[in-house]
Amino acid sequence: MTSKHFFYRFILVLFLSLVVSFVIHFVVLKSIDESFATNLLAVTYLGLLAMTTLIVFAIFKFQKKYFSQVGFLFLAGSLLKFAFYFTLLKPYYSHYELPKTKAFLVFFIPYLISLITESLYVSKLLNKGNQSQDN
Fold first, then answer.
1. From the centroid of its chain, how far is CA 105?
2. Which pTM was predicted?
3. Do residues 34 and 93 touch, judged by C-beta distance below 8 A?
4. 66-90 residue pLDDT tens
């Protein structure tokens, strides 16, 4: 599999997993009548999709040149995602005095899915890069 196909496959898997999660998440929130949480649900999912894609793209582009620093890029990406939560989403939920646990879960569920997908693909990418450096 070429590197370009590897990246496109990552985007497809990330997109599909977040779409499935979004639908389930949306249905559950609607069924328990949590309309406040559905307001920013799409923004949260789209924001995390975009950030995760950009982070993996950066890792993908810089992995050969800066192989030893890729872990820092990964951590910086996680920091960026939490900054997204604390600067954009949390103030909205605090303003409307929404339950903290429910508000955090609206962010954390898509964050966890994107983090797991990102971790799996970055580890495959790094293992592939490490094997090519050994040869």
1. 14
2. 0.85
3. no
4. 777 888 888 898 899 989 888 887 7
